[in-house]
Amino acid sequence: MSxxxxxxxxxxxxATERLGEGEFVVALSLDREWFSPDQAxxxxxxxxxxxxxxxxxxxxxxxxDPADVTVPEGFTPDESILREQSTFETALDAIVxxxxxxxxAVAGINERQRALAISIEAAAVLFAKEHGAAVxxxxxxxxxxxxxxxxx
Length: 152
Prior knowledge:
Layout: H1 2-13, E1 18-20, H2 21-31, H3 37-49, E2 53-56, E3 59-62, H4 87-97, H5 102-116, H6 120-130, H7 136-151
Antiparallel strand pairs: 1-3, 2-3
Helix pairs in contact: 1-2, 2-3, 4-6, 5-6, 6-7
């Protein structure tokens, strides 16, 4: 996944799992020249939203082991990774990464949504969990969204 690779590079570069946000932005914008500083800040938001990094005391902490990420020779991330994915898209990506064919995953998610009369996001997370995809952070987010919707 190019998002994970792009996020891992600043951590790998400094051999750490914790960086200041400024260091992270400089690594991607000035050191690598992959993004403008504003785009690198946007990448932080996307990475936090996807659960790849956590913000702690003004720093960014990798929620994965950057050393385990392989950076392909000549890798340059595409700007499309700056677009925040919906919960559904994120769950679908995790399901496909877990080895389920995309068309089958979408059909299964739609089936769960109809059968259980739940949101597409909840159905996607349920299907992902059933297929061993790593979506614990998404599941927590969906629970919060459902709780907030129930309180309205």
